[in-house]
Structures are given as C-alpha cells and as structure tokens.
C-alpha cells in the first residue's frame, strides 16, 4: 500500500512540475515579436527528446550552449523549423544590455556539463535568474 501511495505522490509532483513549466512558456508566432534578451526554448528530438535553451541577441541571432561550446547562430538554425517558445515572467538581476554582455563574455567556452553547466544554466546565468 505504501508503494502505491508513493507512486501517486511521484505522479502528482511530475504533473504539477510539467504544468508549471508549460505555464511559463509562450509560443512565438513570428520572429518579429522577439526582443533582445528573450529566453528562448525549442524542443529537440535528435538524438533524444529534450528542451534546448538560448538567449536572443536581436537581428535574428541566438547565443546558446551546444554540446561543444557557446556559440552564436541564426534563429532559423536554432529552432530548426520546430515551434519556438519564450520563457515569460522570468525576472533576472540584469537588464538586457548586461545579460547580452555576460553571454558574449563566455563565447567559445567549452565546459559543457549536462548536470552543472548546460544550455539552460547558461541562459539563466546570463539573465541573473536564481
């Protein structure tokens, strides 16, 4: 009986977490709606399904942490024809100019870690989100 109760709690937490994350995302209808400093996410499916994060720099460019290094790419190459989302209501310590300056300061970094230094960590660090 205890195992069934634990499974129920685990499922409840998973559902609550997924709903909260979905509630923070807003679908981007047009790239012209984007503003510099926006925290972007896109669903990637290869080699496995995951959510990828990047920081919009403006002028159709995104800085992100791929699996090798931090680099700047075109928006079209970032989302690869997948739906693009903005993480909304995310309050960071830094204004847009400072967030972009922090991002560019790490350009070329090759210290990726799935657990401690991934694409989401990078964008949150740039924005100063705890």
Your description of this structure?
The chain contains four helices and six strands. The chain is of the alpha+beta class. The protein has a single domain, classed as endopeptidase fold (from Nostoc punctiforme). It has a six-stranded antiparallel sheet. A hairpin with a 5-residue loop joins strand 2 (39-44) and strand 3 (50-58). Helix 3 (96-105) packs across helix 4. Residues 1-21 have low confidence and may be disordered.
Number of domains: 1
- Tell me roughly what share of residues is in helical segments: 25-40%
Main beta sheet strand tally, sense and closure? 6 strands, antiparallel
User: What low-confidence regions span 5 or more consecutive residues with pLDDT below 50?
Assistant: 1-21
Which structural category do the helix and sheet elements fall into? alpha+beta
What is the averaged pLDDT score?
83
Main sheet: strand order: 1-6-2-3-4-5
What is the general shape? globular
Query: What's the CATH architecture name?
Result: Alpha-Beta Complex
**CATH domain class name:** Alpha Beta
Reconstruct the topology from this structure.
Elements: H1 2-24, E1 25-27, E2 39-44, E3 50-58, E4 61-65, E5 70-74, H2 75-79, E6 84-87, H3 96-105, H4 119-127
Antiparallel strand pairs: 1-6, 2-3, 2-6, 3-4, 4-5
Helix pairs in contact: 3-4
Question: What's this, in brief?
Answer:
The protein has helices at residues 2-24, 75-79, 96-105, 119-127, and strands at residues 25-27, 39-44, 50-58, 61-65, 70-74, 84-87.
